[in-house]
Design goal:
Structural class of chain A: mainly alpha
Helix content of chain B: 25-40%
Structural class of chain B: alpha/beta
Distance between the termini of chain A: 52 Å
Mean pLDDT of chain A: 89
Mean pLDDT of chain B: 91
Oligomer: heterodimer
Number of helices of chain B: 14
Strand content of chain B: 15-25%
Largest sheet of chain A: none
Distance between the termini of chain B: 102 Å
Number of helices of chain A: 16
Shape of chain A: globular
Low-confidence stretches of chain A: none
Largest interface: A-B, 42 and 63 residues
Order of helices and strands of chain A: HHHHHHHHHHHHHHHH
Strand content of chain A: under 5%
Radius of gyration of chain A: 21 Å
Low-confidence stretches of chain B: none
Chain lengths: 338, 494
């Protein structure tokens, strides 16, 4: 009798990259739900715009490269698009999402050779480009629904995103992270600033729930071993330590560690963005250093830099460092001197 | 038995074992096949030279071929019969190449070579015992098939511990398990002989904790007779605990230095099956002509362990095991992690064949589609050698040899853990083998080039030296002449 042959190991694990990508995408749901609840359905439209654009762009490039269209099914473009959609303001005009998603796939991913070859996190690359190019649209966030001066229905949101009308400009406002920084810069103390309605006891209204939502999804990923513990814990740990140090040193001038942890893109960054394996460091020690340095950079840029949030820039800067980190943090190999 | 192993295996995988499949039927002697096949190829690619010719009758245990120049273990007939021919046959090797094999038609008498009585082994010199082991064709039965006679000759190295490997960590395989259940004393006696040859006081038998019957059998045997210095140590069942380097690390905390052998750190490691063969070779002068082979998988009707003559065609064994089921898809010699798949079941069982796995679809899935590496690091997490397979893969693809060496490619034991957990299903083991091959070639070329350069340089300097000495001689001659002739005055050119 004749038999088919195969190369060892002949056993498989049933675990696959598309499955991993899909799980990470689905783990965004708690954060997405919180965002929906607090900032209205704008985010759903952004999600749709980003995913459709990303898949379209991926298909276009694959056709141009005369490659199989199978990567469309690997969930990686959908994940990139989702991360971008959750990072841009829910009421940003439609072309922000479209430009960003197209840029992420074309320049962030496919020009480098597609999945696995990109040195930068594509979603964050696109975010940074959008922030630098369109600062006005990118820094005006929807207010938490509870604080909205006018009741924004589906139709209003559609109008705002698709036919960007100035009428809604009054509706959007700066994020708590942004306004905290501006006001601290004006010499107001933390205590006074936090009287403002956009703040909750812990952080910004709405923002803290969204961050807790992403944390929940992230912890689920960690429990199922879909992401390692090193990057998120090092990121959050260094951010906590640094902000704690400054807060203890001058409590009136620096926000609390909790404010940092539950504001802006902290949790999305720690569990979903910094953990992108392609662009992160790949050794266990390297990942600890990588995460810790991102945390430090986030604090430094938020506190002393010119931008309201810092996750994208910190991640991109550390993407640059990752190959060097990998080189210097090789684990000891069996049989080599200790 | 209460003691803990020295340390847990770093990395590794908990695999589904499927061991009950073959362990549920009793061990038995495989029926005598009509034909026995003995490939002439020995270790290192050299062929043994036949000492028999077509038409000659041979007895069981008779030498039928031996290496022409080197002192390697010879080949023995595993039953009596007539040499039919010496012809090219497919080798039981992943390359599927052909080479010369001796084919014997058995006569059913199974007549063995008469044995001469021997003195007790302790009265013989260690060299004699080692020579006997080589002459009896004893090889490592764990899979690597390294001649035991060489392995128990550590030279100037000081060895203090013998380790017997009973950590049968590959799924499906139960041949060592079955051996320990049926012949514990042979294994322990073999250990005593090996300890004597090595002059060591201590022997540790490392056994995986999912082999309770084998464990009990060994414990009872150890209690029944005084085997001084032998200790049984359970280790957690985790693939690849049975790797030689890994078992040494788990049991003693010592690591075999990169590029070295266990004897460098005072350890010699042998498979339990080998210890049994050592006992039979020294005590009964019996050459290694049979071994226990696990025939298993969902592609076979009656999976079980067989005491099998070396040279038995696989098809004969599978037929004795009830034949193939409809599920039979792949034929693997060895285990599902490190064994190799062959397409033909006429191949013979060799001393290295511990298992014949006839896999059905439920045993082994189709190899899925390969995707790009996303550097997730799942591979590094399970690597028992502490390597970064994702980096090795990257550098291998870029053919960056300097980085490959720096990332210790040669420390890879090819256990397949990284390959199995890879979510992108990249055939990492194959990549690493290819990279190792390229690197070895490069190293050899470099050595050759270095050698040539040294020769060239020494030739150059020799020539220079000759020239200089010649010039010196001429000068001296001229000087001598000048002394005798009137001085010639040179006018300056200007």
């Amino acid at each position: 009798m004749r038999f088919a042959t195969s190369a060892p190991p002949h056993l498989g694990s049933g675990y696959s990259t598309p499955l991993l990508m899909r799980s990470v995408t689905l783990a965004l749901i708690p954060g997405l739900a919180a965002s929906l609840l607090w900032f209205g359905p704008g985010v759903l439209l952004q999600l749709l715009l980003c995913i459709v654009t990303a898949l379209g762009m991926e298909a276009l490039v694959l056709l141009l490269r005369r490659r199989s269209l199978r990567p469309l099914l690997d969930w990686s473009a959908i994940l990139t698009a989702s991360l971008l959609a959750l990072s841009i303001p829910p009421l940003a005009p439609w072309w922000i999402a479209v430009t960003g998603a197209a840029f992420a796939i074309l320049f962030g991913k496919q020009l480098y050779g597609g999945l696995g070859f990109n040195p930068f996190n594509p979603a964050m690359l696109a975010y940074a480009v959008l922030l630098v190019s369109f600062p006005r649209q990118m820094t005006h966030w929807a207010p938490p629904l509870a604080l909205a001066l006018q009741d924004a229905g589906w139709l209003d949101i559609w109008q705002q995103i698709i036919h960007h009308s100035d009428a809604m400009d009054a509706y959007t406002m700066a994020t708590p992270l942004d306004s905290m920084k501006t006001q601290l810069g004006q010499g107001r103390t933390l205590h006074v600033i936090q009287e403002d309605a956009i703040y909750s006891p812990l952080a910004g209204k709405g923002w803290q729930s969204v961050n807790l939502g992403f944390m929940l999804g992230g912890l689920w990923l960690w429990r199922h071993k879909l992401i390692g513990w090193q990057i998120p814990s090092a990121f959050l740990g260094s951010l906590t330590l640094l902000s704690m140090g400054f807060f203890v040193f001058a409590p009136g001038e620096y926000p609390t560690p909790l404010f940092h942890l539950l504001s802006g893109g902290t949790m999305l960054g720690a569990f979903f963005i910094a953990t992108d394996p392609v662009s992160a460091s790949t050794t266990p020690l390297g990942r600890l250093i990588y995460g810790a340095l991102i945390g430090c950079l986030v604090f430094i840029i938020r506190t002393f830099g010119g931008y309201p949030d810092a996750v994208a820039f910190s991640v991109l800067l550390m993407n640059l460092v990752a190959p060097t980190l990998d080189y210097y943090t090789q684990p000891r190999v069996y049989g080599k001197p200790r | 038995m209460a003691t803990q192993p020295f340390m847990p295996l770093p990395g590794g995988l908990h695999l589904p074992t499927f061991k009950t499949l073959s362990a549920s039927r009793p061990l038995a002697e495989a029926p005598l096949p009509a034909e026995l096949v003995f490939p002439l190829q020995l270790r290192g690619g050299i062929n043994a030279v036949p000492t028999v010719s077509a038409g000659q009758r041979v007895l069981k245990g008779e030498v039928i071929a031996r290496a022409a120049f080197e002192n390697l273990p010879p080949l023995h007939a595993s039953s009596s019969g007539i040499v039919r021919c010496i012809e090219n046959r497919l080798l039981p090797h992943p390359s599927a190449m052909e080479d010369l094999c001796i084919i014997i038609d058995t006569d059913g008498l199974d007549e063995a070579l008469p044995l001469q009585p021997r003195r007790h082994f302790s009265l013989e010199s260690r060299e004699t015992l080692r020579a006997w082991l080589i002459e009896a064709g004893v090889l490592g039965l764990g899979g690597a098939a390294f001649p035991t006679g060489f392995k128990v000759d550590p030279g100037k190295r000081r060895v203090d511990t013998l380790i017997l490997n009973a950590a049968e960590c590959e799924p499906y395989i139960t041949c060592d398990d079955s051996l320990l259940q049926h012949f514990p004393h042979e294994v322990l006696q073999g250990a005593i002989i090996l300890m004597h040859i090595l002059s060591v006081e201590q022997c540790i038998i490392g056994i995986e904790d999912d082999m309770p019957e084998a464990c009990r059998s060994l414990e009872n045997a150890l209690r029944a007779r005084a085997y001084s210095g032998i200790r049984l140590q359970r280790v957690p069942a985790l693939y690849p605990s049975g790797g030689e380097k890994q078992l040494i690390q788990i049991l003693t905390g010592r690591e075999v230095p990169a590029g070295g052998i266990p004897a460098d750190i005072g350890i010699v490691c042998q498979n339990v099956g080998t210890a049994g063969a050592v006992y039979r070779a020294i005590e009964y002068q019996e050459p290694l002509v049979s071994r226990i082979v696990t025939v298993t998988g969902h592609g076979i009707h009656e999976p079980r362990n067989w005491i099998t003559r070396i040279g038995t065609p696989i098809a004969h064994l599978t037929a004795a095991s009830g034949g193939y089921t409809n599920a039979a898809e792949r034929l693997i010699i060895g285990g599902p992690m490190m064994g190799f798949a062959v397409s033909d079941d006429q191949l013979p069982v060799t001393k290295a064949s511990n298992c014949i796995l006839v896999a059905g679809h439920e045993d082994l899935p189709e190899p899925p589609e390969v995707m790009p590496c996303i550097r997730c690091g799942a591979c590094a997490e399970v690597c028992p050698a502490g390597l970064l397979p994702q980096q090795l893969y990257w550098y291998g693809r870029a053919d960056n040899q300097e980085r490959l060496e720096q990332h210790e490619l040669f420390s890879c034991i090819e256990c397949g853990c990284c390959n199995m957990v890879c979510p992108s299903h990249i055939p990492l083991v194959q990549h690493f083998r290819a990279s190792k091959g390229k690197l070895t070639l490069k190293r050899r070329e470099r050595e050759k080039a270095d050698h040539a350069r040294v020769r060239f340089e020494s030739r150059q300097s020799r020539k220079e030296e000759e020239k200089r000495s010649k010039a010196e001689a001429t000068r001296r001659k001229r000087e001598a002449l000048n002394l005798n002739t009137p001085e010639v005055t040179h006018t300056e050119a200007n």
